[in-house]
Predict the structure.
Amino acid sequence: MDFTATQCQVCWRVQDKAMDRSPCAVWWDLQTFIQTYDLTPHDLSFTEGYCPQCTQLYRRLTQDHLHDS
Ligand SMILES: [Zn+2]
């Protein structure tokens, strides 16, 4: 099976593509993702991305930084 998933470049969790149509996308840690879909890392190809939590954290950090300067 060939499986493409978006992987967060900060926390390395992966987005569940099958859940794309749901209002909030599900982000798994890699181990859980592989076990849930019974995959091997070989089956997976990743697209670089950022999960909502890390995006929010990054925004907050950059905003704090802007306030400092
Ligand atoms: Zn993340």
Observations:
- Strands lie at 3-8, 14-15, 27-28, 44-49.
- DSSP finds two helices and four strands in the chain.
- The chain has a mean pLDDT of 83.
